[in-house]
């Protein structure tokens, strides 16, 4: 069986999915991308979900193939100068993201106050992603309570304030990939500190 010969001058693209929590759409989009590539797709993940794909298109395939494709929110050359890259890419490159854990996921008012405070401390509150309680039998996705937030881009002063707030249990960096065992261990440590809902 013949295998494609790797090209020396690959142009890599970062492709951002439209809906990282839609597993069906992610699968369909990834299959589409794979049909355009010489090599396997590299998933860039946080602890909880897919952030983007790193891809190298086949020779002769135009990046225009990615435009207006359902499931793709945006894409850009990986080696583009930072000043020419999207706001999303610049935020990831220039800032440090944090995971913030709510003190008590059963206290909705307290959770909402913590979120309002976070919104007031970041430049782009639309970047913040909710982290829901762990799924269990009989619990619908829309009924899962908020236990924290990720992709919270705080400066040093914001991190200090977060650690002192009574409605926040803990805060940790979330810039590592899920493949890093240190992050998995750190996540378990923080989960053990949370006030979780009693089992049904």
What do these coordinates show?
It contains five helices and eight strands, in the order βαβββαβαββαβα. It is of the alpha+beta class. Strands 2-3-1-4 form a four-stranded antiparallel β-sheet. Strands 6-7-5-8 form a four-stranded antiparallel β-sheet, sandwiched between helices. The longest helix has 14 residues, at 108-121. Helices cover 27% and strands 24% of the residues. It folds into two domains: 12-83; 95-191, 2-Layer Sandwich (Alpha-Beta Plaits).
What attributes does this structure have?
200 residues; alpha+beta; Alpha-Beta Plaits; 4-stranded antiparallel β-sheet; 27% helix; 24% strand; disordered N terminus
Write the layout of secondary structure elements.
Blueprint (H helix, E strand, L loop, with lengths): L11 E6 L5 H12 L7 E4 L4 E7 L15 E6 L9 H8 L2 E6 L5 H14 L7 E4 L13 E8 L2 H9 L3 E6 L7 H11 L9
Antiparallel strand pairs: 1-3, 1-4, 2-3, 5-7, 5-8, 6-7
